[in-house]
Design brief:
Radius of gyration: 28 Å
Oligomer: single chain
Number of strands: 8
Distance between the termini: 74 Å
Largest sheet: 4 strands, mixed
Length: about 200
């Protein structure tokens, strides 16, 4: 039973990967119903038939049986050309690759007892990222046994004062028991063209 569960999990994972994160419809042996409503490749409803008989008589090198309506009784399955399905999936993969990716927010973490020079280096890195229009989350963490909310707030105030001209706040600073954080969105500076 554990083996069957693992196989089922792997099948679901493969379906999601092939469907680009969306679950792929069950095909051929993946269809669980013994009786199905068969729909031809042309879209003609051929009625209820045993799944095993349909799979045995179908040319599996050219066609595949796809579950199109699991809610129907018996479930509706349609014959599709393997070549057509392959082309659709290839096109979908190509479109996913070409789709613009959302930039990941960058996170810079500093300790509450950071030195002034090290803090300036971190702020400089944040300024560079914000200048490119990125979203940056600055986090001041408590490290060690001595924790001071005042010290974290003080370091956070320095960060805010120096980064405010370069960014806009996504949310106000958050002071938690062991950390202080603020999310900033960089301002993209449009390059002025010489006229």
């Amino acid at each position: 039973q554990k083996i069957q569960e693992r196989i089922k999990e792997r099948l679901e994972k493969v379906r999601k990967e092939e469907g680009g994160g969306q679950e792929r419809a069950a095909r051929d042996e993946e269809i669980t119903s013994a009786i199905i409503t068969l729909i031809s490749e042309e879209g003609v409803v051929l009625g209820a038939q045993p799944l095993a008989k349909v799979l045995h008589e179908m040319d599996r090198t050219l066609n595949t049986l796809v579950l199109v309506d699991p809610q129907q009784d018996p479930p509706a399955c349609r014959v599709f050309s393997r070549k057509l399905i392959y082309e659709k999936e290839r096109l979908a993969r190509k479109q996913r690759k070409q789709a613009p990716k959302q930039p990941r927010p960058q996170t810079l973490v500093v300790g509450e007892s950071i030195g002034a020079h090290d803090l300036q280096i971190k702020i400089g890195k944040a300024q560079d990222m914000l200048a490119k229009g990125k979203r940056v989350t600055m986090v001041v963490e408590s490290k060690g046994r001595q924790r001071s909310a005042e010290k974290r707030a003080e370091v956070g105030a320095t960060i805010v004062a120096q980064l405010t001209p370069h960014a806009s706040f996504c949310a106000p600073p958050v002071l938690e028991p062991n950390s202080w954080s603020v999310a900033l969105q960089g301002k993209v500076v449009a390059s002025s063209s010489a006229e």
